[in-house]
Write a structure and sequence with these properties.
The protein has about 90 residues and is mainly alpha-helical.
């Protein structure tokens, strides 16, 4: 996934700067997304929306989905990730 490549770069930059708490945040976020067991479509939507910063409309065009469908995938993914974070005691 593109997000993983970018997070590797982010980890390296954060480590160089000595801001290791940012590295931990990236690692925890990746673990939470992985443990949330998102569908492939949800993963694509999350990567495009949360990591790469595309709008829902742009994501729809890229994935050939309607904007309401993109919104639905994003909402389901968010709920799954939130559930994992709550299980970890993070809310």
């Amino acid at each position: 996934m593109t997000a993983l490549k970018e997070s590797e770069t982010f980890r390296e930059l954060a480590a160089y700067s000595g801001k290791f708490e940012k590295v931990d945040t990236v690692i925890d976020s990746e673990r939470a997304v992985k443990e949330a067991r998102l569908t492939l479509q949800q993963q694509k939507v999350i990567e495009l929306r949360w990591v790469l910063g595309y709008t829902q409309h742009e994501v729809g065009e890229i994935l050939q989905l309607s904007q309401p469908t993109v919104l639905q995938h994003e909402q389901y993914a968010k709920k799954k990730v939130q559930k994992v974070l709550e299980e970890w005691g993070i809310s």
